[in-house]
Here is the input.
Amino acid sequence: MIVVAGESLIDLVPDGAPGPLAPLLPRPGGGPYNTAVALGRIGADVAFCSRVSTDAFGEVLVERLRTAGVATGLVQRGPEPTALAVASVGPDGSARYGFYVEGTADRLFALPERLPDGVRAVAFGTCSLTLEPGASAYEALLRRSSRTGVLTLLDPNVRPGLIPDADAYRERFAGWLPYVSLLKLSEEDAAWLGGSPEEWLAAGPAAVVLTRGAAGLTVFTPGYEVSAPAVRVRVVDTIGAGDTVNAALLHGLADRPVSGLSATDWRELLAYAARAAAVTCSRAGAEPPYARELREPREPAER
Here is the structure.
């Protein structure tokens, strides 16, 4: 089983019309939540570990998990409201967010006593590692999971607007790396955090996957560097694309240790992740693919 730990929320996504007052459509979202849904859709044995509101939005979020085949036994519930993220989409499909998170359910996540038997990987990231008091509980789960020997994936998915002290966050990020098996981040994350793949590898992860938009994906390991091209697709928006990459990587790894993959293995895994992300980019909001949509590779993106 794969456990995805982190927040869920509601993305308010523009309904196609231009301008700041465009109608907004509510869509289930949140980086870890999207990763869990993507894993369920592509056929993984996956559970979501979070705190979700009992309000109407929270009911929709939990139902969507169940529909995707995601186990909800680790989901804590509470009467606090669901967090909201207001998305603005640029001409290239890239998304920026404004967040409404004060007093929301996901911030009150408590460290579970234990995870189910048979967990092989736990994934973390995004707002859940930023917003206290829940952030400290997720961090404790990361450290505990790493000490038990399971694979841990970290996608910082940095949201600068939620980080009051950038230097303190960067220091905390460095403190997570010894407990991370696989670090996945975007070029934008990397630029904001500072450092380099070589420095991050030296701190603990067995591999670093860097997503580079239309330029594809690159993995850095202590022994080699491998890239895969992006996949040609008409981009509607990029919401959830990185979360889909997380899911594809976790599912594609199966029971293999990160350090045990060859360059050929990584090339195949990155190509699979690129196909999955392309499907997500081809439709509005975080709508990751189903397994049947990933059976046939698409054409590489034009450079």
About this structure: The mean pLDDT is 92.
